[in-house]
Design goal:
Elements (H helix, E strand, L loop, with lengths): L1 E2 L5 E5 L1 E2 L2 E3 L7 E3 H4 L5 E8 L2 E6 L9 E3 L8 H19 L10 E3 L6 E3 L5 E2 L4 E10 L2 E7 L13 E4 L6 H13 L2 E13 L4 E12 L9 E8 L13 H21 L1
Parallel strand pairs: 2-7, 12-16
Antiparallel strand pairs: 1-6, 2-5, 3-4, 4-8, 6-7, 9-10, 10-11, 12-13, 12-14, 13-17, 15-16
């Protein structure tokens, strides 16, 4: 990041963790001098409504009201992902102030997005944690789980299964392992669906579809409160928000369930 100039103009992104500062639901807009940002450091990370979007260094200002990035999932994908990029960059800069090799202070490089040690020269780049997420189908049913963090007395949200990829593991191996660990179900026909940056704080969700192969549900009780097979034509529980890859996976699987049902009837 560099010193913001008074004449710098456009939209401004201020973050605190995965929280964003909005004014009446919108990003601050205008000249740095008129908004009081010209004493801060920042960098241009893209365009917002055909104007520059500036990411400012993270501030600890309790006078400003921040909203969670999740509440903006309704935005077009390119806008949501741009906000996610800003959140992830600030997380990277904040958590890599010191060298992981020798412990001396880092500084941001000029030629690329990286932090470099002022003593030994070691460079660190933004760390992205790959995480798989998978929707499992059994005929005309979908497997959905109520994770402990989503549990509420009235049931809470049911969603697909997910987990971080471990060292030396392929995405497909991670899919099979997570489904087995969390539900005791074996799966087959694993195929790639899509991906989504997930800045909470720095994950990349890699989505898959899979089919049931065998087994009965056995919960990993440390993480899962409940898991069930749900028929596509019956009322479903509370689902993840629209805009999440989990919701997209569920929708795609329900379409496959419906197609399987129609094929069976024909």
């Amino acid at each position: 990041m560099h010193a913001i100039q008074p004449k710098d103009d456009g939209y401004w992104l201020l973050t605190q963790g995965s929280q964003l500062y909005l004014i009446q639901g919108k990003l601050p807009y205008g000249k740095a001098s008129s908004l009081g940002f010209d004493h801060l450091k920042g960098m241009r990370i893209g365009e917002w409504d055909n104007e520059p979007l500036w990411l400012l260094e993270e501030q600890h200002d309790e006078t400003k009201d921040y909203v969670n990035l999740r509440t903006l999932l309704f935005l077009p994908e390119e806008k949501f992902y741009l906000l996610s990029r800003g959140v992830e960059i600030n997380h990277f800069l904040k958590t890599h102030q010191f060298c992981g090799r020798c412990g001396h202070r880092n500084s941001q490089t000029e030629d690329e997005l990286a932090m470099q040690c002022c003593h030994c020269g070691y460079r660190t780049y933004p760390v992205i944690h790959p995480s798989i997420i998978v929707a499992v189908r059994r005929g005309t049913q979908i497997l959905l789980a109520n994770h402990k963090r989503h549990y509420q007395p009235n049931g809470g949200m049911y969603t697909t299964l997910a987990g971080f990829v471990e060292a030396g593991e392929t995405f497909e191996q991670a899919v099979m392992r997570e489904v087995w660990e969390e539900t005791g179900i074996k799966i087959k026909n694993i195929r790639y669906f899509g991906s989504q940056p997930w800045a909470f704080p720095n994950s990349q969700m890699v989505g898959f579809l899979a089919d049931y192969e065998g087994g009965e549900i056995v919960l990993q009780e440390t993480e899962i409160h409940d898991a069930q097979w749900f028929s596509y034509h019956q009322p479903l529980p509370e689902l993840p928000p629209t805009g999440t890859i989990a919701r997209k996976l569920i929708h795609a699987t329900l379409e496959l369930c419906q197609a399987a049902d129609q094929k069976k009837e024909s």
